[in-house]
Amino acid sequence: MPAPEDDLALLERAARDAGQIALRYWRKHPRAWDKADDAGPVTEADLAVNDALHDLLMGARPEYGWLSEESEADPSRLDAGHCFIIDPIDGTRAFIDGQDHFAHSLAVAKGDRIVAAAVYLPVRDLCYSAFADGPALMNGQAIAPSKADIDGARVLTYRAATDATHWRGGVTPPFQRDFRPSLAWRLCLAGQGRFDAALSLRAVWEWDIAAGSLIAERAGASVTDRRGARMRFNSPRAMIDGLIVAGPHLHEQLLGALAP
């Protein structure tokens, strides 16, 4: 089997190829429609990127499983020793709106652990990457989380997560809420220390966070689900019970402040 660093080199190349495809459609009014079951929007660019990534990645690693937001579920992935976990365009609404905050999120799971990851923002030419036991990098430079305290921390999350009912004693901690459309990028920004934490109290799809979770973890952040448990990937449901990503001290504070 290829080493994690070899898988990472493949993911980085694939992510940059994906960026070139996405930019052919960006701000050019791509066809877009809503998926069934209120699963959100999709565009012709999402599908074009997904097809190209599938051809490249599965062509290079035909023995790996495949899990992607834009592919039909394939239960054979559960029996594969390794599995690609892919979000072709993370932040599709931002992409449709012509914003530059969308990303390509690519990861490899070995068993239930992520061992290689790349998150690429093509408009900004930002590439975050990590492999198991290696450093977390942004365009080749090492990144690390902040050492912030919860008081005044800059937390990337959605508005409803600040509702007092989610917090112990009905009191929302005094952090500052910010937001970015791409969930994968939010995890990277927390790992980079550009923001202090990323938080979701809702279940999240594996393809949204697989790559970012390893990048933040290898940067030195604590990365868990909303209950403080280790994340396990390539699961039958392909979902994680929320997330808390922050430097160890802030992670402990956020976890302790949440309502049981």
TrEMBL record:
Mg(2+) 2 binds at D90. This is Myo-inositol-1(Or 4)-monophosphatase. GO terms for molecular function: inositol monophosphate 1-phosphatase activity; metal ion binding. GO terms for biological process: inositol metabolic process; phosphatidylinositol phosphate biosynthetic process; signal transduction. Belongs to the inositol monophosphatase superfamily. Its cofactor is Mg(2+). It comes from Paracoccus alcaliphilus. Gene3D superfamilies: 3.40.190.80, Fructose-1,6-Bisphosphatase, subunit A, domain 1 (3.30.540.10). Keywords: Magnesium, Metal-binding. The lineage of its organism: Bacteria, Pseudomonadati, Pseudomonadota, Alphaproteobacteria, Rhodobacterales. InterPro entries: Inositol_monophosphatase-like, Inositol_monophosphatase_CS. CDD domains: CysQ. Pfam families: Inositol_P. Mg(2+) 1 binds at E69, D87, I89, D208.
